[in-house]
Design brief:
With 110 residues, the chain is mainly alpha-helical. It has helices spanning 2-20, 29-45, 47-53, 55-60, 65-80, 89-109; strands spanning 24-26, 84-86. It has 6 helices and 2 strands. It starts with a helix and ends with a helix. The model has no long low-confidence stretch (mean pLDDT 94).
Amino acid sequence: MNTLLHLLARAIALMVTAFILPGITLTSFWIAIVLAVVLSALNIFVKPIILLLTLPINLITLGLFTLVINAFIIMIASSLVPGFYVGGFMLALMFSIVLAIVNMALEFFV
């Protein structure tokens, strides 16, 4: 039950973030739920591998390169989920930052 609440909170955060940023298209709430599942799976399976491969760059930039990795994960999700479109890499970077802020605010209430 707790996992379902977190999934719904993440889907709501995705909808709010897509509404805030121009150039991001998210067609429906069901697509947001699918996107939340895909992003969670990518963060579990792909992100640790990328973080390990880019560890020297991440250490030099004091962890700021993680934002670039998050944007890359969002671009991958954009290509996997039909109904979710990101206009470019800079939009994906802004999307990851705003999503982190909105998700943090929603998780406070959940």
